[in-house]
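Problem: given the chain below (153 residues), write out its structure.
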Amino acid sequence: MTYTHEVGERLRRVRIDRGLSLQDVERRSDGRWKAAVIGSYERGDRNITATRLLELAEFYGVAPGEILPGEAPPRHPDEAAGLVIDLERLDALGDGWQALRRYCESIQVQRGDFNRRVLSVRGDDLRALAVIQDVPPDELVERLRELGVLQDA
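Solution.
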């Protein structure tokens, strides 16, 4: 099963757990979330961006970690993944990695961390970054290490 399909199954499970049909989602969101689009996310026919996934998790009233495959998110900030992304090396990878770079920038803004050279990655961050690249988190970690972008803290 692909990562996109697994995310889709989790989206479906959360929606059903809330007692909502696809049409209910469209109606309750005043058309912001179209039934056809949500259905295509749930079937894995359409990739969902990290931003849209976060917005949909908020709409459903769940933590993004409930939608993202993998282990449960860390419960405390001190249980961080312990990984650091070299942002300068990430920039050098080119266009295929720009979405990941933009998301890293949004994390920096949210944290007020503007050193611009490295970014500490937390469990939830890693799962979101993996969604952006459409791979499981462990595969993303391995690939970033191979490219010299990810290092242990």
